Structure formats: C-alpha cells, structure tokens
Amino acid sequence: MTNSLLSELISADHLCELGPGKPNEALRPKLAALTIEQLFAAQRVVDHDAARCCLSGLWLLHNFLDESHSLSQEIETADGSYWHGVMHRREPDYGNGKYWFRRVGNHPVYSQLLAEAQRLIAAEKPIDATALKIAQAKSWDPDLFIDWCEQIARGRAKQELLAKRIAQVEWQLLFDHCFEQAISQ
C-alpha cells in the first residue's frame, strides 16, 4: 500500500464494525469513482479477481455492505468467498456467513489472524467463553468468530471492542493478501 489514495481510504485508527455500521457517505463518491487502475497506481495488476476483492474490501471497510456484496458475490475465488462471508457476518446473516466461509477453505491469512487474535486476547484477559476458545484454538475457526459476533450483537457476550480489533486485523490481513495477489506474478 504505497499510494496516497490508499492512505486516504484506510485510516490507522479505524475499527471495523461487527454489524452493518453506518456508511461513510462522505467517501461514497470517491469509492464509486475508484478504479482498479487508480487503486494500484503504477503497479501492474496480474490478478483482476484479487484486485476486485480489494475494491470489495474498501467498500466494506466504510460500511457499504450492498456495494461490497455486489463485487464479492461475482468473484469465484477463496478470497472472494472470504469477503462475501465477512459481509454476511456483518449484515448480520450469520448462517450465510458460515456458508461462505466453508467455501473459503483453509485461507492463507488464517494462521497469522489466529496469532494476532490470540495476542490481542491475551492482552485483554477475556471473560467471554468464546474469546477463551479462540485463545486456546490450534487453528482459526471463522465459525467461532461468527458465533462470538452474534453473541455480542445479542448482548450475550461482552468485549465488543476486542472483537472489533480482531475484525480489523482480519480486514487488514485479507486486504494486504489480496493486494499482493493482485500484483504478484
């Protein structure tokens, strides 16, 4: 992420929502006008599906679920299914989110996501049973995270800020992965 446009669209202090969130209408025109060529500046795109995943992720980051969904549902890759699953998790349509995560399989970001989630959880001394399960897991389980998000939404679990931090790490890891896939040969 070397171009200034990305710096403008991705704020370091931004946290991902667990639910639908409120769309950042001030950014709608900029996102609507954003092309793959602009997003990747002078870099040569070799994987257009991965590049479109980045666009889907940016829409999702700013809480435009419909726009993100329109893009991700047309991308028939594990990355496209991942963005699609996150969007449904946030909608919230938890069962549909789990369906799309089953289509993802074992994604390359999962091991780093688990390590980062466990680091964040250890620093918080969680009280939620689901957070403790994530802390003790041997591999990332997207269904478990979906369950935690649902429990938080229904008021049956706490630590929403911790879950949002994990969701932000997930977003960043997936975006970076897709960005690299788009330009790697």
Explain this structure:
The structure is a single chain. The model has no long low-confidence stretch (mean pLDDT 94). The protein is built from 11 helices and no strands. The protein is 65% helix and 0% strand. The longest helix is centred in the last third of the chain and has 24 residues, at 160-183. α9 (129-136) packs antiparallel against α10 (142-153). The chain is mainly alpha-helical.
Strand content range: under 5%
According to DSSP, the number of beta strands is 0
**Can you summarize the main beta sheet?**
none
Uncertain segments are none
What's the N-to-C terminus distance? 17 Å
Helicity, as a percent range: 55-70%
Helix and strand pattern: HHHHHHHHHHH
Q: Roughly what is the average pLDDT, rounded to an integer?
A: 94
Overall, the morphology is: globular
Q: In terms of structural class, how would the helical and strand content be classed?
A: mainly alpha
Number of helices: 11
Radius of gyration: 16 Å
